[in-house]
Amino acid sequence: MPSTTTNTVRLSIIQADEYGPWTTTPAPRRETDLQALQARLYADFADFVGHSDGYAFYSRFDNMVGVANQIAPEEYERFQERVRNRYPITVSIGVGDGPTPLAAVESATEQLQAAGSAQDPNRQEALRADDALDPENAHLTVGHFDIVDVTGSITDEESVVDAHTTIQRSVMDLKKHLLAEYESVAHFVGGDNVIAICPPMRTEAFESIVEHLRAETGIQYQVGIGTGATAHEAGHQAKHALEECRETGTRVVGHGTADGHRRRVEDA
Predict the structure, then answer these.
(1) Contact status, residue 203 vs residue 252, Cβ threshold 8 Å
(2) H helix or E strand, kind and range, residue 56
(3) Three-class SS of residue 7?
(4) What pTM value is reported for the model?
(5) Please, what is the angle between helix 76-86 and helix 31-50, to 10°?
(6) Around 7, how many Cα atoms within 13 Å sit in the side-chain half-sphere?
(7) Do the beta carbons of residue 214 and residue 220 sit within 8 Å?
(8) Taking CA atoms, which of 107, 116, 218, 227 is between 20 and 30 Å from 128?
(9) How far apart are CA 228 and CA 121, in angstroms?
(10) pLDDT tens for the 268 residues of the chain, in order
(11) Angle at the Cα of 227 from the Cα atoms of 49 and 67, rounded to 5 degrees
(12) What is the DSSP string of 161-216?
């Protein structure tokens, strides 16, 4: 279960102001234009948090999630200014701290909702935040999951639509399990990859997660685990650990995990 350590992670919620009404005013806008705007906005946000070793996840595109332990809440004003100058919309931001990723995202959501509805014309460029995180003591765990031999087992065996459906179903099961059992926040990041932001967890917890997915969905995942003060630091370790999974055929490899050493788990 999650650690009781306080203030381990800071998450931000970025939400487009009055986006729904804008997409239909003065008339419904072309879908491809909206998709292009969303993609550019996400790219700008990823660049913004990336400069501070953070991670960005697109969520619902008009809503995005940032993992940014090293970004002070007031620094988000620079991103709001960038959006105001480059886009026909503005964004509001909620920033939350918490002992687990779930607690942080709930706090960020509450901060944002307290500023007004997403479709309230009077809410523009709101910035609400907790301010309790000590960056020197911040710490998080990243689990980088992917499906074992997705090309041979799914991509080369099913149509593009069927493959997408199969992967998305298993991804949803993974995300729900991580949230319910470990208060972890996971996001699909393309292909067959899922990145989970977790509280401090022992390697055995990830073994249990991988086995749960295999038993429930019939799909075998592998996961690399990393820890660090920032998403980049933890995520970079997780990427290297995942490569070790791929090279050695192991299913769980942890670098710097809560049990204090690297752990490999062979196939059952």
Answers:
(1) yes
(2) strand 55-57
(3) coil
(4) 0.89
(5) 150
(6) 11
(7) yes
(8) 227
(9) 40
(10) 444 444 578 999 999 998 888 899 889 999 999 999 999 999 999 999 999 999 999 998 999 999 988 888 899 999 999 999 999 999 999 999 888 999 999 999 999 999 989 888 889 999 999 766 666 667 889 999 999 989 888 988 999 999 999 999 999 999 999 999 999 999 999 989 999 999 988 899 999 999 999 998 899 999 999 999 899 999 999 999 999 999 999 999 997 655 544 444 343 3
(11) 25
(12) HHHHHHHHHHHHHHHHHHHHHH--EEEE-STTEEEEEESS--HHHHHHHHHHHHHH
Cβ atoms within 10 Å, residue 5: 12
CA–CA gap between residue 66 and residue 248 (Å, rounded)? 32
Place of tokens 């639509």: 161
Q: 205 near 142, Cβ under 8 Å?
A: no
DSSP 100-126: SHHHHHHHHHHHHHHT--TT-TT--S-
Tokens of 28: 């419904």
Give the CA count within 13 Å in the CB-facing half-sphere of 126.
Answer: 25
Those residues whose C-beta lies under 8 Å from the C-beta of residue 31, and which sit 6 or more positions away, are none
Dist CA 162 CA 54 (whole Å):
33
CB neighbours of residue 250 within 10 Å: 18
- Pull the structure tokens for residue 187: 């996001």
Half-sphere exposure of 189 (CA within 13 A, CB side): 19
